[in-house]
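User: Batch of two.

Assistant: Item 1 of 2:
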Amino acid sequence: MRLERSGVNSQMMNIQIKRAYEEPEAGDGTRILVDRLWPRGLTKEKARIDVWLKDVAPSTELRKWFAHDPAKWPEFRSRYEEELKRNKDQVSLLRREAAKGTVTLVYGAKDQEHNEAVVLQRLLTAK
């Protein structure tokens, strides 16, 4: 889906999210891994990650506290957004990559609705 975002410029941006275990596709554009840890059992060749921004991922403490519990999602999202406000350099790197063209934020979590890539996609596409 194409979404417009404000910031660097007003061009249309395509920010996708995808599990690391899904097959890479040509339409993925730049594949950016946004997990702190490399996905288990996945080779670099199979993952085809272009950029690994592990420092944009939630802190180890926040990740362990959340433990992918959907009941904790609203609080996780809020805490993670606060971490991102203090991590402007990494967010800027992500924005620069997104400004170049299609980007796929890659994550390892099984839950496709409650993970850091969802938060990052929302942040990058916010007006």
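Item 2 of 2:
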Amino acid sequence: MSNNSRPDGAVQYLTVSVAGQTLGIPVLQVDDVLGPQRITRVPLAPPAVLGSLNMRGHIVTAVDVRRTLGFAAAETSARMCVVVEHKNELYSLTVDSVGEVMSLSAGELAPTPITVAPVWREVSKGIYRTPEQLLIILDVDRLLAGLAQQDKAATTQALAA
């Protein structure tokens, strides 16, 4: 049984929306959900890093999920933040909206089909087909690893200039 599973075999996911796509983040990876926050810019940070915020005395890196995935920045600043831990650091994943917590059967998680856009396949652990939508399960580790690659590229460009 995975650490996201309940004894009945259900796995709980927090649903979020990014660029019109609904994603699921395993509830056990979520530390907090925050409304719009005051974010302090960080000089020379990659474009996807919005800056940092203070969450009860902890410095949290704010990451724009849209920009991490190559989408344009959102037109509104009233976006939600989902705080997760990655490699012992806190990250605030800025998303367009936060939905509900869904309990889904672990056995119904399907591999991400080839028909799903590459941008989503790269950060997906799999999908659930619900009656209303296709729910892509976000692999937070891969999403943030992609951010680290962007950071290395930005640093290389800054040093070459």
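The longest strand covers residues 10-18.
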